[in-house]
């Protein structure tokens, strides 16, 4: 049986893990590796060079010149793992087995950007990883494989990201082997849900805590953008406070107060009034001493 020839587009730890699995399969041949143009992944580049594979970057992968360049490799399949450009029709249809992508979201829900952060912010009890065919929409192609993973109450972005780094690679490799062995039964996303939803990209300034929300929503927000994310922020007077971890208080009563006011102080932690109850701030960084009565805004 001839080898499945793959053109690989990727970036980051999950791309490293997936590429290693593909390289270890004797039935697969990686024809080229394409990294991001603006911030080229040096680890991915070294992996390619070590295995005598051409490493390329391109400002616009949809140009005629680039398509001609990769067409010379006669790939059977193109694979994307955390690549940052949108593939258009001519690239999508270049190879016999088309183009597949691994997305760290439970499609057709959590399409778009920063989906692991959004899953935690929304208080989800699980997150999904999906490998799908790429079409001309954004994360709308037919599903090849999908798996969900549990989110525990105290899991934060770092915890979920570690799982995704490993499991994205596992699912992508599973999808590739299914294609190689002709075992694909694609699932149309509209058969799961007629609409689904998209998540927008998070930007600088989105880290600000709204203390007028309920404790659980603030708790989920803090853990959703915890390290290695940007970390939730608030201010005491003009001093910024970065909050990486908080804790819900068991049996905390609901009462009317001033959201954002410090209402309790311990040796290494403090308690803030929220819209409904209170939240204990466990891990934080600021240049001023937090005192009872201070107001976080």
From TrEMBL:
Top-rank taxon, per record: Bacteria
EC number: 2.1.2.9
Span of domain Formyl transferase C-terminal: 205-283
GO CC annotation terms, alphabetical: cytosol
Swiss-Prot/TrEMBL keywords: Transferase
Broadest EC class assigned to this enzyme: transferase
InterPro entries linked: Formyl_trans_C, Formyl_transf_N, Formyl_transf_N_sf, Formyl_transferase-like_C_sf, GART_AS
Domain Formyl transferase N-terminal: 42-165
CDD domains cross-referenced by the UniProt entry: FMT_core
MF-aspect GO terms: methionyl-tRNA formyltransferase activity
SUPFAM superfamilies in the record: FMT C-terminal domain-like (SSF50486), Formyltransferase (SSF53328)
UniProt keyword Transferase, yes or no: yes
Keyword Chloroplast: no
PANTHER family reported for this sequence: METHIONYL-TRNA FORMYLTRANSFERASE, METHIONYL-TRNA FORMYLTRANSFERASE, MITOCHONDRIAL
Name the UniProt record assigns to this protein: Methionyl-tRNA formyltransferase
Organism: Acetobacterium wieringae
Gene from which this protein is expressed: fmt_2
